[in-house]
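Following up on my earlier thread - several people asked me to post the actual chain instead of describing it. Fair enough. Here it is, all 78 residues.
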Amino acid sequence: MVMWREFSLVNSFTCEASFAGPTYGSHANCHFNTDMLESIGKSFCKTMFDITDSRDRVKKVLQDLQIRYPVNAKKNDD
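Reply from S.P.:
Thanks for posting it. Predicted structure:
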């Protein structure tokens, strides 16, 4: 609902994750760590930026996130 309200997205998806990891694929029998899950979230946010039409709204949301989570704002990642 938040993505629909904030970004007027027609489609919205839920990403559920656990530290247990997958049972098949390139990460089979590997436990995920916080860096891996953060990378997934970062990729998801970049995708949301790419598909939204309102760059001003994206800037506002990013500014709000930087205020709420200043530790993430200090990182110098892509």
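The chain has a mean pLDDT of 77. That should answer part of your original question.
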